Amino acid sequence: MSATRLNVSAGIASVTVALALVALKLWALGETGALSVAASLADSAMDMMVSLGGLMAMIYAARPPDEDHAFGHTSAEDLAALGQAVFIVISAGVIGAAAAMRLWSGTPSVLRAEGPGMVVMGISIALTLGLVLWQRRVARRTGNRVVRADSLHYLGDLLPNIGAIAALFASARYGMGQIDSVVALGAAAMLVIGALRIGKGAWDALMDRRADPAVVDGISRIADHWPGVHGYHDLKTRTAGSRVFVNLHIELDGSQSLRQAHDIGAGLRRAILDAYPEADVIIHKDVAGDREAREAAARSVPGSVPGGETD
Are residues 219 and 105 in the same domain? Predict the structure, then answer.
């Protein structure tokens, strides 16, 4: 099976599991009335949107750039992520407010059908673990970062499910209905933290923030040690969705043939893509020594900016 098909299969599995979890938890919420289940339901609804967005992104990313979108369409992922973040914050606010009102009222929460509710949450945990195992297998074979990130996200979602089981058990065994509200408050806080992280990442990408410093440092190390490259400058990066766009000027021996210069640049580009498959790399070739001459000339002109000229 090809890497693309494996990635899409992981995305389809993620969306299918998320849909099943939402349906199960909707039923459990109606039966138990537990806010902890409502918090877990909101988390699963977020998972469904994120998984659906990831699946669409993987399918959409396979399309080549067109005349109107020369750099592709990956920014749509960031717009969707901002919308998801807003939805998550609103959902968490509603759940947190309801839980706080229950606690402050002093009236014990009356939960129902705790047993079936715990069974549903147990099934949710089993489905989530199965999905995570499949996603990790796919990520190991394909190296897809979207699948790997989705796997980590679902792994972190086990905590609200376990918390909901604990709340239902405490209510059924000890009559401690207030535990449900405490668990719901904690889950709501986790939802807000996750939403802010997703929203910040999307906002940074839409504002053309540079790539992760570790990625920039890795590209620098590759260029530093690449045979035939005498130096480099103007390394610029930006992110859009799951893509990282890289522009790099390398300095080559001006006496060599065009074919030799091309081969050096093509080899360096391939090495960067091998290390960072999500990257889109453009390499400009300059003659070694010309940059110093341009900067010296620029320094001799008042008000000029050294290094401001590019080829």
Answer: no
Domain finish residue from 153, 177, 205? 205
| CB-count exposure of residue 142 (10 Å: 0-12, 13-18, 19+) | buried
Inside any domain, residue 111: yes
What single string gives the DSSP state of each residue in 148-175?
A: HHHHHHHHHTHHHHHHHHHHHHHHHHH-
Range of the domain at 52: 3-205
Query: What was the pLDDT predicted at 66?
Result: 64
Does residue 108 share a domain with residue 71? yes
Number of domains, the chain: 2
Exposure of 41 by Cβ count < 10 A (0-12 exposed, 13-18 middle, 19+ buried)?
A: buried
Answer yes or no: do 263 and 116 share one domain.
no
Q: What is the pTM of this model?
A: 0.54
Looking at the structure, do residues 168 and 221 belong to the same domain, yes or no? no
- In 152-263, DSSP assigns E strands to 231-240, 243-252
CB 40 within 8 A of CB 160: yes
Are 44 and 153 in contact by the 8 Å Cβ rule? The answer is no
* pLDDT profile of the chain (311 residues), mean per 10: 73 88 86 75 77 73 63 63 72 77 65 72 87 85 65 67 75 68 76 77 75 91 94 88 85 92 95 89 88 58 48 39
Confidence (pLDDT) at 265: 94
- Does 306 fall in a domain? no
